């Protein structure tokens, strides 16, 4: 747990910057999920940057679609997608409106509302695993496509808010290839994490799916 984090919302101009500036700067920030059962707060410990039409690994690489529309702005909104037919993952939109880029929230430490998160993540062996990976993070927070497009830069009592928290010093930030990204996008070292933090997910390289004969 972090000591005396700043609970003020991050301003929109925090996100209106180049994606590779925003991504590492999100480490240590606090994401608050307000639910009918109570709030859950998470300290971000691992993220990945996706640079839209400049990035073969991005959902927006081939242009705008109904699925990725939120990625094109405005910044500071939540982009939620469904993957593998069973999991949701969440991102925070960055950069100027009209230019798609987003940061995938890969892992974090639950610092408030752990009891509620445990009810959603009953397979977790301990609290460090509650949000250890992007699908686990979304599951622990109760995030689905209904929250796609939510404005996270607000002081109002909204479903999702991103707070200032306590930024991680640069010497504690590590970076490397993104998890499970294939092809040209697989070489970008755009995954950022807090060094030696037990909530960070393990790196896995892309493994091509075998076709059934």
Written overview of the protein:
This is Putative 3-methyladenine DNA glycosylase. One of its GO terms (molecular function) is DNA binding. Belongs to the DNA glycosylase MPG family. It is an enzyme of class 3 (hydrolase). Keywords: DNA damage, DNA repair, Glycosidase, Hydrolase. This protein has 213 residues and is an alpha+beta fold. It has one domain: Methylpurine-DNA glycosylase (MPG) (3-methyladenine DNA Glycosylase, Chain A, Roll). 12% of the residues lie in helices and 29% in strands. It is built from 4 helices and 9 strands. The chain has helices at residues 12-15, 19-25, 114-120, 134-141; strands at 6-9, 30-35, 38-50, 78-83, 87-93, 102-112, 160-165, 173-176, 191-194. Strands 1, 2, 3, 4, 5, 6, 7, 8 and 9 form a 9-stranded antiparallel β-sheet that branches. A hairpin with a 2-residue loop joins β2 (30-35) and β3. The protein starts with 5 loop residues before the first strand and ends in a 19-residue tail after the last strand.
Secondary-structure map:
Elements: E1 6-9, H1 12-15, H2 19-25, E2 30-35, E3 38-50, E4 78-83, E5 87-93, E6 102-112, H3 114-120, H4 134-141, E7 160-165, E8 173-176, E9 191-194
Antiparallel strand pairs: 1-7, 2-3, 2-7, 3-6, 3-9, 4-5, 5-6, 8-9
Structure in a nutshell:
The chain has 213 residues and is an alpha+beta fold.
Q: Please identify which CATH superfamily we are dealing with.
A: Methylpurine-DNA glycosylase (MPG)
Distance between the termini: 50 Å
Which residues sit in consecutive blocks of at least 5 with pLDDT less than 50? none
Following the backbone from N to C, one meets helices and strands in this order, namely EHHEEEEEHHEEE
Do you know the CATH topology?
3-methyladenine DNA Glycosylase, Chain A
Residue share in helix: 10-25%
GO biological process, one term: base-excision repair
Keywords: DNA damage, DNA repair, Glycosidase, Hydrolase
Pfam families: Pur_DNA_glyco
Family: Belongs to the DNA glycosylase MPG family.
